[in-house]
Design goal:
With 34 residues, the protein is mainly beta. The chain contains no helices and three strands. A three-stranded antiparallel β-sheet has the order 1-2-3, with no helix packed on it. This is YD repeat-containing protein.
């Protein structure tokens, strides 16, 4: 189904880019204490 999220990580396993189903790219996302 449509609506899948795509995640990209840097070599240290930090989430660097989140691609939304709409095609938007959110860069440098940090969760928790970051």
């Amino acid at each position: 189904p449509q609506g899948a999220l795509a995640y990209e990580y840097d070599p240290l396993s930090n989430l660097t880019t989140l691609t939304l189903p709409t095609g938007q790219h959110l860069n440098h996302l940090y969760y928790g204490s970051g």
